[in-house]
Structures are given as structure tokens and as C-alpha cells.
Write a structure and sequence with these properties.
With 132 residues, the chain is mostly helical. 82% of the residues lie in helices and 8% in strands.
Length: 132
């Protein structure tokens, strides 16, 4: 199950990265279109009204693309941070357990009290409630 979840996350991350590249290419295309229209204006192919009309549409598209780009970049950055955390957590737990076993029981109890909210013990199971 974990493998399927990780594969889905990787697929979504690659899809979002691809989408970000497409948006960046579209922004570059809009910039090239503006430069081309400016050249047409200077040569007299376009009059000023046509130039303004074309650039207003491009400006609206550019603001939408820019907003999407920022959102995607932020999402990708969060996912990268999440992946780093996922990779670090097992090592952190291992070192915590190694350090925990060396401690005196009194110190162990003090550490557990900061982590655990409650512990419910029955004959066949132990339920731990963690502090958030």
C-alpha cells in the first residue's frame, strides 16, 4: 500500500513539474509575442489601438499564468520538503530509540510525558495518545 501511495505521489509531483514547465514556456511565448507586436508597431504594421488590444489580452493571460506558476512552485517546494522529512524521520526515530535505551528509567519517563498525552493498557493491546 505504501509503495502505491509513494508511486502516486511521485506521479503527481512529476505531473506538476511538467505543468510548471509548460506554464514557464507559455510565459516565454507571451513575452516573445509582446516583442513581436512591438516590432510590428514600430514598423507600422499595427496601429496603437491594435497593439494595446493585443497586449491587454496577453497581460490578462500573463497574470493568470504567473499566479499558476507561483502556486505550482510553492506546492512543489512543499512536496520536496515533505519528501526530505519522510526520508529523515526513520533515522531520527532510530537515534531517539538508541538514546532512549541508554537513559535511566526516571529520565525515560520524563521524556515520555512530554511526548505522550495518554496510554490506555488492556489485556491484549496498548493504545497511545500523542501530544500534537
Amino acid at each position: 500500500v505504501r509503495g502505491h501511495i509513494e508511486a502516486g505521489d511521485r506521479d503527481e509531483l512529476s505531473r506538476k513539474r511538467s505543468e510548471l514547465k509548460d506554464i514557464e514556456a507559455s510565459l516565454a511565448g507571451l513575452e516573445a509575442q509582446f516583442t513581436q507586436n512591438l516590432g510590428f508597431l514600430r514598423r507600422g504594421v499595427l496601429n496603437e489601438q491594435e497593439f494595446v488590444k493585443a497586449n491587454n489580452m496577453a497581460r490578462d493571460q500573463q497574470s493568470a499564468f504567473q499566479e499558476s506558476k507561483e502556486t505550482l512552485a510553492r506546492w512543489i517546494e512543499e512536496q520536496a520538503g515533505r519528501e526530505e522529512t519522510i526520508e529523515r524521520v526513520p533515522g531520527m526515530i532510530k537515534t531517539f530509540l538508541e538514546d532512549f535505551h541508554i537513559m535511566e528509567p526516571r529520565v525515560q519517563k520524563a521524556h515520555l510525558q512530554t511526548i505522550l498525552k495518554a496510554a490506555h493498557v488492556s489485556r491484549d493491546k496498548i493504545e497511545l495518545e500523542f501530544r500534537v
